[in-house]
Specification:
Layout lengths: L5 H16 L9 H4 L7 H8 L2 H4 L22 E3 L6 E2 L20 E3 L1 H18 L2 E6 L4 H10 L20 E7 L28 H16 L2 E4 L2 E7 L15
């Protein structure tokens, strides 16, 4: 039997003592971890830091239902109604238009607030000064409806391509005509959406009555910040404000 040397016993004793006195580790956060803040741009950081091994653990996103039409925000849109004295004859909400198809799901007239307010002033001046009223053919045209129109008539000579966008889709354009005290349309030389030279502002062969009606409409619209285009006597766009193309669709209630 071999006897261990005293030095070995001393070494074993020291090792056992060190094991008994070693502090137990606790799972506490460090001071630094307590102060850690989530970066504000975390949504931009996370995708780049996900490893290839964890990509398979991310569930597929669920398909969301189509958004329901929201109520118009009074700061973004203003509705023109028949209760305000306007005659609404929104052609694209029926089949009574050049496509012979209904484009809008229902007839409502929205404009940007700045444009709508000026139209109310125009309404008042035309009534007080001439005894005339306003019949509205078209107002704001949502992006989805502009697409519908383009799908039926994909010709830039008649319909603005959706990617380019019409002033109607910005909520700044309106198509309208004048009426007498009984609500009957005044003679403007051509019907609405007439595609011919007779609809141009510069066409000179119209009667004096037609020229006068067009002049009254144009001069009044321009006085309140609306501009015309050469080929359509009924079309005016508000020039004193700018908005992007919009996709919002009004509710049908």
């Amino acid at each position: 039997m071999h006897t261990l040397k005293p030095q070995v016993y001393i070494l074993l004793f020291l090792i056992l003592q060190s094991c008994k006195e070693a502090p137990k580790l606790e799972n506490k956060p460090t001071k630094n971890s307590e102060k850690t803040e989530i970066p504000e741009n975390i949504e931009n950081i996370v995708p780049d830091t996900i490893s290839k091994h964890t990509l398979t653990d991310i569930p597929e996103p669920t398909k969301s239902l189509p958004a329901k039409p929201a109520k118009a925000n009074s700061k973004s849109w203003s509705e023109l109604t028949s209760n305000e004295g306007f005659i609404l004859d929104l052609k694209y909400a029926s089949t009574d238009n050049f496509t012979k198809k209904q484009i809008y799901d229902c007839a409502r007239c929205y404009m940007r607030p700045e444009a709508a307010e000026q139209l109310r002033l125009i309404r008042d001046e035309l009534k007080e000064k001439y005894g005339y009223g306003i019949r509205i053919f078209d107002c704001y045209r949502p992006g989805p409806y502009q697409q519908r129109l383009w799908d039926i008539v994909p010709d830039p000579n008649y319909v603005t391509p959706p990617n380019k966008g019409s002033m109607h889709s910005r909520g700044l354009a309106i198509d309208l005509t004048l009426t007498d005290k009984s609500g009957r349309d005044l003679d403007m030389g051509t019907p609405f959406d007439f595609f011919g030279k007779e609809a141009h502002h510069g066409y000179a062969a119209h009667t004096d009555a037609v020229k006068r009606h067009r002049w009254i409409l144009r001069s009044t619209m321009e006085k309140y910040g609306f501009g015309s285009i050469r080929t359509e006597w009924w079309h005016y766009s508000f020039k004193n404000k700018s908005y992007a193309l919009d996709q919002w669709v009004w509710p049908c209630e």
